[in-house]
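Read as amino acids, tokens; as here:

___
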Amino acid sequence: MAERIRTCIICGNSSLTLHFLPNEKQLRKRWLEFIFGRPPVYYSAWLVVCSDHFEPSDFTNYDAYSSGSVSKLSLKPGSVPSRRSTTSSQPSTSETSLPPVHTSTQTDPPSRSCRATQLSMGTLGHRFRSK
């Protein structure tokens, strides 16, 4: 089975340090509120958020990471993501919007064509052997 590449649920980045949802329920709820706006009833426990969505003060080893002596950032206990946009420091309307949800409708063309047909015993007919 191929290895799954994890990406940030907010921006889709996979090259930075990724952080899983915390185990503590109240803290996890705050993370989900930041990600979705309103915590969903059902969600994947494997959601990750990249380090771009945290302030430098949220990390225990930010200075060592900046200098290049460590390769992964470590979050301080109780840290919650707080930066929606990673491209600019100017607030915009897209910062408050949720990530796009991709849906399908019955009017969408099929993703691949299939030429198979369903056959039943009635369609195939009975196989009798002649004498």
Summary: Confidence is low (pLDDT under 50) at residues 88-95. Helices lie at 25-36, 62-67, 121-124. The beta strands are 18-20, 48-50. Residues 1-85 form one domain.
